[in-house]
Request: fold
Amino acid sequence: MVDIGNAAQAGETNRRTLPGLGRFGALARPRALPPLSTLPDADWLALAECTAEPNGYYLPDWELAVNATARGRTGVSALSARDDTRRLVALLPVVSAWRALKISLPVLVSADPYGDLGTPLIDGANPADAARALLDAARASGARAIVLRHVTLEGKAMQAIRAALAVNGLAPHVLRAEQRACLDATADAEELLRDALGAKKLKELRRQRNRLAEHGEVSFTVATAPVDVARMVDVFLQLEASGWKADRGTALAQHAGDTCFIRRATAALAARGQCEIVTLHTGETPVASGVVLRQQDRAFWFKLGVDERFAKYSPGVQLALELTRHLCADPKIALVDSTALPGHPMIEPLWRGRLGIGDVVIPLRRNDAVVALTVAALRARATIRAKLRKVVRILRTLKEKRQ
Reply:
């Protein structure tokens, strides 16, 4: 891991990339934070059980597996806080701004846990005090700001952080705000699906399911025991690597470190009742599979893999229908975060709930030029990336028209 503004070489590289930031090179060397792997598991687990807002991707069994072998996501540090009794009351896995964003400033950035959710774990008993202690720990490290990526904007964690900032006359800077699909699992599944899709679409999906059944009886299974999860995660890996994700090089099975992480994380979480693998079969053939994490009253849909040979029967949607019924029937689950990209064409028409997600800069001092530079640099970066994505879409459309 490259610590915050770790080396002069990194600073020189960044000065070429972002002119005007070089004079802060000497500031970009706060005290090193301890490696995430040194945090006692028992303390982390205790905090996860009473956190104000769940984040399945920052559970220790998940994040430590990511930190151990997942490509580009190892070597994470722990920004943490304890109360007067030495009880862990707040935790945010972090990396340097240079490593995450190629900005050589004394700024901490929430670590990427592979799932698109960077909400910190904040003690639910006294969240405002816990958030204040976390911000104090960041200040003590020499950091001047924290960047939270993919955080729930109106969740209890951000409410606590806003309250802690307000004490010092500060407020967060929201860089990006979007809405992504979520499921109200307290609702009746059939009513929810009927309202979301309408009778005509449901009829078409039933027709596709009947056509799928011509290849073998359609069944939906949920693996929860560690031995079953270990077996079915390999099925999931095979399905995910059989389609377009493999073409893009993003399938977990294409990298040994990613494969190791997902096997280790799912087995460990299953042993605590916090992970399940859901699979749709036709006969003995699996056609769609997904990984679901659980924490408190919330579930998180990590990824989906489908057998594209059966694409005309919409196996991913068929799995989502069964998962909706499964989770709505579970009294322990109140909300399911799709952790999908906003605008996802499969899940958004199905799950009509919306969860506000965004990227936020948390200032740690008033009228700080470092914070202003961080906000300006990240907004400029976002503008450039948006323009590049537009160019890529145009080129792709032109290519498709020529075919």
